[in-house]
Write a structure and sequence with these properties.
The chain is mainly α. It contains 16 helices and four strands. The protein has one domain. Helix 1 packs across helix 6, helix 1 packs across helix 13 and helix 1 packs parallel to helix 15. The radius of gyration is 23 Å and the shape is globular.
Length: 427
């Protein structure tokens, strides 16, 4: 395998998968926030909750729509750049990807369409059911993706036939500890991302002395009170995963802990088992990304702990402008920590793409360096454009605040008075 092709293929997948992951984290968390807000609006019939559903729901839809494109583009790469992986292990890890696409993604998209266009066509309980189906299928989608990724990190439930992996024990694959622990970690991290996003956007409007002070005061508290428990759950699952590495991927654990003697021993054992080669992952990427992740956790722990205390005082929520600036600046922190954690997870298992079974260099498609370079330029440009577009749309809508037009608005009823309970009755 040409080393240039290998490096370019790895860089391309890292950029596109990482870019897609940014969308997924916010989408999954915001879906849950919107579903809970809509439940409160449906049960309590308060105008404020109904308006919060429409505002945060609009931001969720924007992020979801652009994220869909990145997900589709990313999966093209399995056939384009990694046909060695699909030929060798596609019967196992590809099955869960197919289920995710057919069962979870299609159902999620269908019911999201019903939620968007059924605002004034369904009764409020049926409409509430659609957003919860969207949210639950989003979690289901994340689970199936992590089943595939968990198999790559800890292959279980397979047998070998004709030099290829074949699914042998579906239960083992579905209950893979590498997948289940990562699922809990990602779900909690997504809620953390949404909490910081909601708090940061709300802080922006309170900092500017928005007339919608009650709306954004409630939203800020929602984001802050969500962030702290989400961070604790994220850290708990992360800690369990770090402890499990000693058994599942001892080399990654040794590199992260800088245990030189243990690294040398594991290297010797792997040479004896798999033949000559370098089985030590890059310390810069493995340990470096892990430390960035832990640093992000430490910063967020201080911010969320202080935030829970500050949010208990109404005057602080509305008037403490320095805190508002901090909340705005902290919005990227969960994204940084999650991307660092993803790099730690993926880079740390090198040189394996299927741990202990298939090396990354044997999984790459037989492409010329020129073709791979052209593919990298096209994919990177496309993803860069989508990230910029999504950021611009989110910022543009977030700055506008809750308005009469947009998601859930019905022109047949004319302008909406925020203090009028009638919109909830329509809703």
């Amino acid at each position: 395998m040409n080393p240039d092709v290998l490096d370019l293929a790895r860089l391309q997948f890292a950029l596109t998968a990482g870019g897609h992951f940014l969308f997924v984290a916010l989408t999954l968390g915001l879906a849950t926030v919107v579903a809970v807000l809509q439940t409160l609006a449906t049960v309590g019939r308060k105008p404020l909750h109904a308006r919060m559903v429409r505002y945060w729901g609009q931001l969720y839809v924007i992020n979801y729509a652009v994220g869909i494109v990145t997900g589709i583009v990313m999966e093209f790469q399995f056939g384009l750049s990694w046909n060695g992986l699909t030929h060798y292990a596609g019967n196992v890890f590809g099955a869960s990807l197919a289920v995710e696409t057919i069962v979870a993604f299609f159902v999620e998209s269908t019911f999201l369409g019903l939620w968007i266009f059924g605002w004034h066509r369904f009764n409020r309980w049926a409409h509430l059911a659609t957003i919860w189906i969207v949210t639950l299928t989003a979690y289901l989608s994340a689970y199936w993706i992590l089943v595939s990724n968990g198999f790559l990190n800890n292959p279980v439930g397979y047998r070998t036939e004709g030099g290829k992996l074949v699914l042998d024990d579906p239960v083992a694959v579905l209950t893979n500890p590498s997948a289940l622990l990562a699922f809990g970690h990602i779900v909690a991290g997504a809620l953390l991302t949404a909490g910081f996003f909601v708090a940061g956007v709300s802080a922006y409007h309170l900092f500017r002395r928005s007339p919608e002070w009650e709306f954004f005061g409630r939203s800020l508290r929602t984001g802050v009170f969500l962030s702290f428990p989400a961070l604790m759950v994220t850290a708990a699952f992360g800690g369990v995963q770090l402890a499990a590495l000693h058994t599942l991927q001892p080399m990654k654990s040794a590199v992260f802990s800088q245990k030189t003697n243990e690294i040398a021993q594991i290297q010797a054992d792997m040479v004896a088992r798999f033949g000559p080669g370098d089985y030590v992952p890059s310390e810069a990427w493995t340990r470096g990304s892990g430390l960035v992740m832990l640093l992000g956790f430490a910063l967020m722990m201080y911010l969320t702990f202080a935030g829970v205390i500050l949010a208990c005082f109404k005057k602080v929520v509305f008037r403490f402008r320095l805190w508002h600036l901090v909340l705005m600046a902290a919005v990227p922190l969960p994204h940084l920590a999650m991307i660092s954690g993803w790099v730690f997870r993926e880079a740390g298992r090198q040189p394996w793409v299927v741990y202990g079974l298939l090396k990354t260099e044997d999984a790459v498609s037989d492409l010329s360096p020129g073709a791979m370079r052209a593919s990298l330029i096209v994919f990177t440009a496309l993803f860069g454009l989508l990230v910029v577009l999504n950021t611009w749309l989110l910022v543009r809508h977030a700055r506008r605040g809750p308005v009469d037009s947009g998601l859930g608005h019905d022109d047949r009823y004319g302008p909406e008075d925020p203090a009028d309970p009638l919109p909830v009755a329509r809703y």
